Amino acid sequence: MTSPTAGAPVAATDAEIAAIAWNGDGLVPVVTQDAATGLVLMLAWMNEDALRATFAEGRMVYWSRSRRELWRKGDTSGDRQWVREAYYDCDGDTLLFVVDQEGRGACHTGAPSCFFRGFGTGATPGPV
Amino acid sequence: MTSPTAGAPVAATDAEIAAIAWNGDGLVPVVTQDAATGLVLMLAWMNEDALRATFAEGRMVYWSRSRRELWRKGDTSGDRQWVREAYYDCDGDTLLFVVDQEGRGACHTGAPSCFFRGFGTGATPGPV
Description:
Two copies of one chain form a homodimer.
Chain A: H1 14-18, E1 28-34, E2 40-46, H2 48-57, E3 61-64, E4 69-72, E5 81-88, E6 95-101, E7 117-118
Parallel strand pairs in A: 1-6
Antiparallel strand pairs in A: 1-2, 3-4, 5-6
């Protein structure tokens, strides 16, 4: 695994940010994908503060719905995520970030991806 | 593009389905990824009926939150999605399906992926 240590700030425009359809709680789901392998790593949530912090730092900052605070991914675990590309979908209600994953992986269990359990198979997903 | 015409039914166990953490509306977000390219195609939602239909048919069946009905993806557009692999995440509150995408692509705009707009760049995502 590479050891990325910096991300790319994203110069999103106000018009792009205005196109986001936040849900009733002011949040949007975020899909995070590994730039090197294409593996879907996790799904988490952002509010506008988290999104703007992510853009400014070039590093994934989510909103923790359970702790109700900004969640600067990897501050505790070291498993930080550095932004490479950032997209929003056709109706603006989901974001996709392509990242360099630092450390062991995205999952708090130590797995590379949070999607390590397969229905009917128990299989672990690999890069597709 | 290949022209897949059948999917693989998924023999999920009751224990696996019981591990899913449905939200307050009885729904779970579903990330759909292209098996051939690794491209993240879309995010949509399923209730338990949609999930069981997807497993039985080997074809993606979502829950349309706007129409409040089962949404058998591609019945109108022809852009059906055939299941290849199905995963659930570490806390059971998100699903990941790897599919063969039929037709033009996943997006109602005709784009291969719904995530065709890049923040700050206008770039279209490609396979990673």
